[in-house]
Amino acid sequence: MPLYEHVMIARQDLSSAQAEGLVEHFSTVLADNGGKVVEHEYWGVKTMAYKINKNRKGHYAMLKSDAPSAAVQEMERLMRLHDDVMRVLTIKVDAHVEGPSVQMQKRDDRERGDRGDMGFDSSRPPRPSFGDRPERGDRPSFGGERRR
Length: 148
Hints:
This protein is of the alpha+beta class and 148 residues long. The protein has a domain at 3-96: Ribosomal protein S6/Translation elongation factor EF1B (Alpha-Beta Plaits), CATH 3.30.70. It is 20% helix and 32% strand. α1 (16-32) packs antiparallel against α2 (69-81).
């Protein structure tokens, strides 16, 4: 059977237990239609980049499934009809990645550089400071006079 990853965003005013209950509910929908959930993760409440249905935040959850396409279509249909689910994204994958997803890994493990030096990279040339800027009188003229 094909492998899928589903990410859903539920409303922010739900409790975390209710959001995890939604994950369990949709897992049983997959199981009833001949599929199975390999793994699921509850990512918690996160701030979104833009408002969705007047909500700034949402409960994020991810499901990794091994299910026929009919089961996935039925689950997506029920998710889109459910009032508490704001967004759903389903991706067909070749293989599930072992271990926790990137969202669940500790921030220190991510490759984003050491924050102790505030992002300074010694391989890049230093940025010019305001003292290096030429004065207005020293700037080159572009040949045209001001029109009045």
